[in-house]
Amino acid sequence: MRIPIATLTFLLGTTLSHANGGFHSYEFPGYKDLAQIPGSEFTVHQVDRPQPPRIQPPDTIKSTPPPSDAIVLFDGNSLNQFKDNLWSIVNGNIVAGEKGLSTKQAFGDFQMHLEWRTPSDPSIAAKKTGSMGNSGIYIMGKYEVQIYDSYSCKIYADGSAAAIYGQTPPLVNVCRKPGEWQSYDIAFKAPVFDGDKLVSPARITVIHNGVLVQNNTEILGPTTHKDYRPYEAHPSKLPIYFQGHSSPVQYRNIWIREL
What we know:
This protein is mainly beta. The protein has helices at 8-11, 19-22, 122-129, and strands at residues 26-28, 71-74, 82-83, 88-90, 93-95, 101-107, 110-117, 135-139, 143-147, 153-155, 182-189, 192-194, 197-200, 203-208, 211-218, 238-242, 250-258. The protein has a single domain (5-55, 69-258), classed as Exo-inulinase, domain 1 (Jelly Rolls, Sandwich). The longest helix is centred in the middle third of the chain and has 8 residues, at 122-129. Residues 3-24 have low confidence and may be disordered. The chain contains three helices and 17 strands. This is DUF1080 domain-containing protein. InterPro entries: AL/BT2_dom.
């Protein structure tokens, strides 16, 4: 998710409290009168769209080892599976930088596992960038599954953690505290085109911290900030892009199975 500097005055709410076990609470309220989301009663980033209900995540998250047929994108030692790498490895974890990180290999349909955590003090990210532990997984470089500190920060519903950004909020908010490891398990079905015509849209299932939050959700087109974009034909396989958003989100144990 991109939040341009020009919008921060509108978006960035004041510190509300020291709730949530000593963490600050922030609000990024949303917008009015942006593009209508196709097939929905809501507009993009609608300010009064209902928030996903918060539920308690499991007490612990087990790190899931890759199966024998998986392609290991990151094992704690090397970024060789990525190109144009400007990110760093600290204590066996990838630390996100300002710019993004793309896989060398292109993917279509897949099952993917990754683990991530936002900065332990969310106020650092908020004060520097207004990003609140912000990153994202751009599948095929086009379709974003949001990564965000939705434990400490209330953002517009379609921008919360595990949202299909700007389109579909997660069924529930199952975020853990900032600084704690979280997991995504993603099953993705790529869109199919016949020439320039869309035959079938992309679909995605996301399990966040062991809880189903996107259930075979239809992706409505490429995701973007403050707008809706229809599908445009593209190759059946494309690299996966990990968003850099000037927030030191960390990643570990990333693997993928082609389907």
